[in-house]
Amino acid sequence: MSVDEMEKRIVRYGDLVPCRTAFIDAHTPGSDRKENFTIIGGGVSEAADQHVHIKETPGFNIGAAGQPPKCRNSLHTHRTAEVFFVLSGRWRFFWGNDGTDGEVTLTEGDVINIPTGIFRGFENIGTDYGMIMAVLGGDDAGGGVIWAPQVIEDAKDHGLVLGENGVLYDSNKGAHLPAGIEPMRVLDEDDMALFPKVTTAMFVPRFVARYLDMMALADHQPVTVIGQDGMLIDQPGFTLEFLSAGSVDNTAYSTDRHEILMVMRGHWQVTWAGGQTVLAPGDVFAIPPGIERRLQVAMSGEASLFRVCDTDDEAGPTMNFFSDNRPHQ
Q1: pLDDT exceeds 70 at position 238
Q2: Which residues contact 309 (CB under 8 A, 6 or more apart)?
Q3: 67 vs 30, 50, 168, CA distance in Å?
Q4: Would 3-209 and 211-310 be classified into the same CATH topology?
Q5: Pick the residue with more confidence: 234 or 134?
Q6: What pLDDT sits at residue 49?
Q7: Which of 64-68, 182-186, 233-237, 251-255 is predicted least confidently?
Q8: InterPro entries given for it (predicted)?
Q9: Which of 48, 56, 82, 160 lies in disulfide reach of 155, CB 3.0 to 4.6 Å?
Q10: Residue 253: exposed, middle, or buried by beta-carbon count in 10 A (0-12, 13-18, 19+)?
Q11: CA quadruple 178, 179, 183, 185: dihedral positive or negative?
Q12: What residue segments make up the domains of the chain, in order of their start?
C-alpha cells in the first residue's frame, strides 16, 4: 500500500476537527466549553455537524474529548463499552445516578474502562486544556447514550431538546421538534432505581489501570490491558494493549485484525512495503488487516502507545458487573 493511501488512514493530532455542539449539554453552564472529536466511525455525537475523520469502522469507534479546566461532561450511560486513556491533563471521573457514588482521579496515560449500566461523567481538574482519548464498542455507537434526567431538564432550560430520533434541536437557533417527533423519553424514578450503587472501592481495582504500572509490565512485551487475561475485566468487542520501547524489536508482523495505533508518548516509526511514517503523541493510525509492518521507537526517550484490535466478542454489555436489573431502552 502506498504512502498516500496509508496517510489517509492516519489522523494527526494537529489535524483534529472539534465539534462544540455534539451533545445535549452544549449550552449548560459548566459543560458548554467542551469539544468532541470523532476520529474513526460515527461516534455518539447528537449533532449533524460533527466531523468524522475516518468513516470506516473496524468493529469499534475511536473518539476524543477536549476540555478546558473546570469543564465537565454531564452524567450519562452507554449501551456499549466506553474506555478512556488520558492523553493530557488531570481528570476526575465520577459515577452514580447523581454522580456521587464514587470517583477517581486519572493522570496522563491512565486507563479507565467504564462498564455499561452506570451513569458516569468526567471533569478536567487540571490547570490547562486536557484531552482524553476514547474507544467505544460496536460499529454503530450512535444512539448509545442515555442521559440522566437532570441533564435533559437542564438542557431544556438552555434551549436544547433531544428528539426520540437522537437529533438535537436548538431553539436558540430557531429549531424545534419536527411534526411526529417526540422528545427523548426521560428515565423516571422506577428506571433510575434499577441502576446499581457502585462504590469507589468496588470500581477502581477492576476498571482502572495506572500508567506507571503498565510501563513496568511492558518492559519486555506488550501488556494486555483489556482482553483475555487482561489487567481489566471486560469483553467489549475489542482488545487494548499497551506498548513501551521495550515491548517491540522491529520484527515484521501482520494480523487478520484491524489494528489501531494510538500514541501516548514519544515518536514511533511504522514501516511497511511501500513506505513508512512517524507517529507523534495524539496521532491515530488505522492499519487494515493483512499489511505486514514493523514498529519501532523513532527517537530516544520515553515512548508508549496503545494498540486496539477488533475481536469476535459482542460489542454490547457482555458481562453483568454489578446488577441483574439494569434498564435498557
Answers
A1: yes
A2: 238, 239, 241, 255, 257, 258, 259, 260
A3: 10, 17, 21
A4: yes
A5: 134
A6: 78
A7: 233-237
A8: Cupin_2, GPI/OXD, RmlC-like_jellyroll, RmlC_Cupin_sf
A9: 160
A10: exposed
A11: negative
A12: 3-209, 211-310
CB-CB contact of 83 with 114 (8 Å): yes
40-66 residue pLDDT tens: 997 667 777 789 999 988 989 999 999
- pLDDT band of residue 137 (cuts 50, 70, 90) is confident
pLDDT value for 315:
55
Distance CA 114, CA 95 (A): 9
CB-CB contact of 267 with 302 (8 Å): no
Residue 328: per-residue pLDDT? 37
Residue 239 confidence (pLDDT): 95
Distance CA 62, CA 41 (A): 7
pLDDT greater than 60 at residue 318: no
Distance, in Å, from the CA atom of 203 to the CA atom of 114, rounded to the nearest integer, reads: 9
Instruction: Report how far residue 64's alpha carbon sits from residue 129's, in angstroms, rounded to the nearest whole number.
Output: 13
What Cα–Cα distance (Å) separates residue 289 from each residue in 225, 258, 267? 21, 5, 23
The pLDDT mean for the chain works out to 90
Q: 211-310 in CATH: which number?
A: 2.60.120.10
Contacts 24+ apart (CB under 8 A), 322-326: 322/115, 322/117, 322/118, 322/196, 322/198, 322/202, 323/117, 323/194, 323/195, 323/196, 325/194, 326/116, 326/117, 326/194, 326/195, 326/196
Pairwise CA distance, residues 149 & 15, whole Å? 35
Q: Residue 229, by phi and psi: left (phi above 0), alpha (psi -120 to 50) or beta? A: left
